[in-house]
Amino acid sequence: MERSGRLLLLSELRIRNTAYDVSLTRSVLTWKRRTSSPVYHPFRPSVHHSVSVSEIISVREEDEENISRRRDDGSWKKIKESEGKDCRQAFTVLYVERCRQHRWRCAEVTFTCPEGALRQHWVSSIREQLAAVANRPKHLLIYINPYGGKRQGKRIYEQKVAPLFAAAGVSTDVIVTEYANHARDHLRTEAELKKYDGVVCVGGDGMFSEIIHGLIWRTQIDGGVDPNCPDETLLTCSLRIGIIPAGSTDCICFATVGTNDPVTSALHIIVGDSQPMDVCSVHHNNAFLRYSVSLLGYGFYGDVLTDSERKRWMGPARYDLSGLKMFLTHHYYEGTVSYLPARGIIGTPRDAARCRSGCAVCQHNGQLLTERSEKYEMDETSDSESDGEWRTIRGKFLAINAASMSCACPRSPKGLSPAAHLADGTTDLILVRKCSRFDFLRHLLRHTSKDDQFDLTFVEVHRVRRFRFTPRHCQSDSDLELDLLGNASKRQIFSQICRDHPACGCAPAYSCWNCDGEILTHTAIDVRVHCQLIKLFARGIEEPAVFEDLANPCAI
Ligand SMILES: CCCCCCCCCCCCC/C=C/[C@@H](O)[C@H](CO)NC(=O)CCCCCCCCCCCCCCC
Ligand SMILES: Nc1ncnc2c1ncn2[C@@H]1O[C@H](COP(=O)(O)OP(=O)(O)OP(=O)(O)O)[C@@H](O)[C@H]1O
Ligand SMILES: [Ca+2]
């Protein structure tokens, strides 16, 4: 603490012809306007800025070429003749500035320092401190989906992100994908991962999904772990993943950063943030199907996705249209859900507290699960499931959703499960039973208001470590007989099905699973949460600082 607070430099420098006391410690750069009079002046408040060294992007020595310089937004900043002369004896610090709604911007301050040796000393001291900041990426592998969202991925990267990476001295290898699964397959087999400090995807949740599938698979194969076995403890991926949002929902970016803004995401990557995240593995009959980090949804969200895939040409609006259509269609599905409740952890899906930057619940539960899995590894006779009992629920459901994180997105800023945690090793299993359209609408509407979407008689939510689902028609005949009518005949069973689904033929027996926006080919699935399997260049949503908006010049 003392070491980081030790003063490294203190000088009087000028910012736009005004004198400032500028100081640098290992952790903070501060500039404070000099006051000529010790008397308090109500109309001239003291100007005092502090920037954490960990949030400095870079420092640049000014030369004549830099005098007329491009601003952040791409426009050219005119510098007066007299100012220009000053600039030649100046250096500029680029740093993170917080704006409203979790947005970050790259701000800059130019300090004039006519004395060459002192100026050099300042520039090299700041650079030394930046070099000492741990975990900043130097070399990144970037995948751009040119067709995601509104097809702006390439433009967003070139105009908003690449200039920031260049300013921060981050070098990049960029691949513009040419077909679906290009990024996944490149990561699985070809990419020279040792060369990089992280992988970045420019696209939506589907692109992010490709990246995690490539990285997780590669990590297991390289480490000799069989990803097909549902009971294997998977190896965590060492490379962090960055998301530059350019998709339709971008819920993983929104729920880990608090906003879908390419510049904010680029800055989180540059400062080297790290946010662990849970990943669910999905298996069918012991065969691996997919990984999921956000939503696994059967029924409503599965049907919305299936319908929306036919409307891809509409862009992000396809989800609203398909959502409305599926709401009116009002299908329900029968099946059995079994789950293993999460025990010994802190937190429940009905908590008022939210998963935020540095979340204590994620830290506690992450630690607990690591200790437990170490214990099980030592004691091979133990089974990681033996400390909990499976519970089973049979019924007719409009939706079965598993949210491994809040799934907050602009459509629903609090998300499907507002109290879910990014890295606690659990998923929130939400069961919406058959109910009237009016009641289902009440439930849906509560995703967009302060009201609790779980506080309804036909909705239940459980925090779980593992779950299985079997649609009714996959159950064995003997199961069906027991479930429905004891020892009734098959004819009675089918007459029951016909009563529930009248002869109009519009009611299908099966829905499909929406797995982070991809349709799964199987309906009977076995899902297991892997605690903190991956890491993102993010820090979780930050609590807004008190008076942030008042103090902040970019809060508009
Ligand atoms: C009346 C308004 C009710 C609004 C209710 C909004 C609830 C929205 C909850 C959004 C949850 C997103 C979960 C994220 C899933 C991602 O892994 C995945 C990949 O990107 N996205 C989707 O599957 C995309 C899924 C998109 C789902 C959109 C559902 C829209 C429902 C609209 C219902 C309209 C009823 C109107 C009745 C008058
Ligand atoms: N070059 C490409 N051509 C066609 N499809 C691609 C290409 N690159 C990636 N894809 C696929 O496009 C799909 C959608 O991409 P992406 O996630 O970027 O956008 P989105 O679907 O609009 O957004 P969201 O997933 O947030 O709803 C992904 O499943 C990805 O596999
Ligand atoms: Ca979780």
Structure summarized in a few sentences:
By secondary structure, the protein is α+β, with helices and mostly antiparallel strands. The protein contains 16 helices and 23 strands. The protein has three domains: 1-34 and 47-64 and 87-133, PH-domain like, CATH 2.30.29; 137-273, Probable inorganic polyphosphate/atp-NAD kinase, domain 1 (Rossmann fold); 279-374 and 388-475 and 506-530, Tumour Suppressor Smad4.
CATH class identity of the largest domain: Mainly Beta
Kindly estimate the percentage of residues that lie in beta strands according to DSSP.
25-35%
Helix/strand-derived category reads: alpha+beta
CATH topology of the largest domain: Tumour Suppressor Smad4
Shape: elongated
Low-confidence stretches: 70-84, 380-385, 477-503, 547-551
Helix content: 25-40%
Could you describe the 3D structure shown?
InterPro entries: ATP-NAD_kinase_N, CERK_C, CERK_PH, Diacylglycerol_kinase_cat_dom, Lipid_Phosphate_FormReg, NAD/diacylglycerol_kinase_sf. Residues 135-286 form the DAGKc domain. Pfam families: CERK_C, DAGK_cat, PH_CERK. One of its GO terms (molecular function) is ceramide kinase activity. One of its GO terms (biological process) is ceramide metabolic process. By secondary structure, the protein is of the alpha+beta class. It has 3 domains: 1-34 and 47-64 and 87-133, PH-domain like, CATH 2.30.29; 137-273, Rossmann fold, CATH 3.40.50.10330; 279-374 and 388-475 and 506-530, Tumour Suppressor Smad4. The protein has 16 helices and 23 strands. It has helices spanning 2-5, 64-67, 81-87, 116-132, 153-167, 182-190, 205-222, 251-257, 262-270, 300-309, 318-329, 360-378, 437-445, 477-485, 490-500, 548-551, and strands at 7-15, 18-25, 28-33, 48-52, 56-61, 69-70, 76-77, 90-98, 104-112, 139-144, 171-176, 198-203, 240-245, 275-284, 287-292, 295-299, 333-341, 391-403, 427-433, 459-471, 513-515, 518-519, 525-536. Strands 14, 15, 16, 17, 18, 19, 20, 21, 22 and 23 form a 10-stranded antiparallel beta sheet that branches. Strands 1-2-3-4 form a 4-stranded antiparallel beta sheet, covered by helices on one side. It has a 4-stranded parallel beta sheet with strand order 11-10-12-13, with helices on both faces. A hairpin with a 2-residue loop joins strand 1 (7-15) and strand 2. Helix 6 (182-190) runs parallel beside helix 7. The longest helix has 19 residues, at 360-378. The radius of gyration is 27 Å and the shape is elongated. The two termini are 36 Å apart. Adenosine-5'-triphosphate (ATP) is lined by residues 145-149, 177-182, 203-207, 210, 247-250, 517.
